[in-house]
Specification:
By secondary structure, the protein is an alpha/beta fold. It contains six helices and five strands. Bound molecules: adenosine-5'-diphosphate.
Length: 183
Amino acid sequence: MIAIYPGSFDPITLGHLDLIGRGSRLFERVIVAVLRNPNKMPLFSVQQRLDQIRHSTQHLPNVEVDSFDGLTVNYAQIRQAQVLLRGLRAVSDFEVELQMAHTNKTLSTQIETVFLATSNEYSFLSSSVVKEIARFGGSIDHLVPPHIALDIYQCYNHNSPMLNPISTETIPPLKSISVDREP
Ligand code: ADP
C-alpha cells in the first residue's frame, strides 16, 4: 500500500521525521509530498524543503520526496496511493484534521486518511515553534536535524546558541556607601 504524507514542512522537524519513520514501517512506500502553496510566505523555497527532506530521509529506502499543487486527493490518485498519512498532536489538530479527512472523503471514496499519534516527546513540536525559537536567538538543535538547524540559523543570521553560550554579566562589588551617621 502506498501512503502520501502531505504537508508544508517549512521546515521538516524531528516530529515529522518520527512520523515518516513509523509510516515507512507500516506502508510499502511513503511519499512525502510538499504542498506548493502560493498563499503562504514560507521560510524555505519548495526546492530547499525537498533537499532538506531528502537529506533527512536518505536512510529510508521506501521513502520518496516530491512536491505537488492542487487537491491532495488528485495527487494521491495520480501517484496510485490509497492512504493519506497525517499526524495528531493535540485536540486542536484533531478538529482540523477530521474536517479535512471528511472533506477529502467527499472528493474520493477510494482514499483513506490514516492518523498516527505523535510520539510523546514531540507532542509540542511544530515548524512554527522551531521558527519562533530561532527568530529570537534560541537553540533549535534538539528539534530538527543538524543540517536543517544550520539552514535555519543562516536564515536568521546567527550561529548556534550552543556555540555562543549566554555570557553572564559580572556584578561589580558593592561600593562601600558612606552613610552619614548620626552623631
Ligand atoms: P500542514 O501545513 O499541512 O499542517 P505541516 O508541515 O505543519 O503541514 O504538518 C504536516 C503533518 O504533520 C500534519 O498532519 C501535522 O499534524 C503533522 N505533524 C506536524 N508536527 C508533528 C509532530 N510533532 N508530531 C506528529 N505529527 C506532526
